[in-house]
Design brief:
This protein is mainly alpha-helical. It has helices at 3-29, 33-58, 62-93, 103-111, 128-132.
Amino acid sequence: MSNLATALSWILIAAGIGFFLTGALGLLRFPDIFTRLHAVTKTDTAGMGLLAAGLAIQAADLLDTLLLLFIWFLVMGSTSISCQLLARYSLERDPIDEFSLPNEQADSIKTGISKTGSKSAQQIKPTRENATQGRGDHG
């Protein structure tokens, strides 16, 4: 392996470790469960991808590279599923009330209209027209 490939590999590994550390810092510093989950899931996915790319450069054969890719896909899937489950459990246990949100968000939840003037998802009634919109099969 050339010196350039080795240097690129170590740069990717160091960047991956940096993403993991940033996610850990976000987990400690952010105020609520949702921002903490967001920080951890995004940085863990990016960190694992960079780590896998750096290790794939150093891999001896194609099978090792495919195994690293498979592990990265497993991490992406398990991270997103566990984040969704934790966020849903947190919402069921302690629902968000309008007093815990900033003023703009609380107003948009009460009125159903955001600052941009669009309707919230709660105000859009599911109809056949909305369901087929954008798919090209009107009628």
